[in-house]
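User: Could you check the structure of this?
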Amino acid sequence: METRLELDVLIFPDEVRVPTPEELSEWELETASQLSLPPLRLFVALYPYNPAAMSPNYDTAAEELPFVPGQIIKVTGDRDSDGFYHGESGGLSGYVPSNMVAEIPVDDEYLKHTLMQQGFLPVDYAPSALSDVASIPEDVVVRRMVALFDYDPWESSPNIDTEAELGFRSGDIIYVLGDMDQDGFYFGDLCGRRGLVPSNFLQPLPWD
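Assistant: Sure, the predicted structure tokens are below.
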């Protein structure tokens, strides 16, 4: 009877040989890292959602994810034809209505990990008054945004003139006046204080 012996080999520029366990493990890790996986995206819940009481899909409500405002949800893939993402949060997974959440625009893997560990953003949806409305020109568009992270201009600003910027904390509601400038900053209003705010620290919010 013919006996076959199968071995894994690695092809090097100058030789072909059986790899060591360490080389084989390294090759497997490199191969796994090259697989096409859907990107991980982070979202924050804007409103409370109880599928049993609020879902438009009564028959499949059990497959949806419940959440509360400020809860961070991990999403993989794109929105489906019914307007739902598939997400995970708090050890549960299920479908997430896209109109109840907002994406957190962060690409840094360390920040993603930090936010996932944190689990929540302290979003305060109590209306904060926009100060001195009369001083805002009629043609200026006002948008309402939430701060995703703490920001101290003295420590984090890339600009020399930090006195022109606003400091804020994660969860603060900031009214943005006009468009973003060429340096990536908005001009914002926070409880009567006005100044420049970095756009990559903010997420747009719908008006109540």
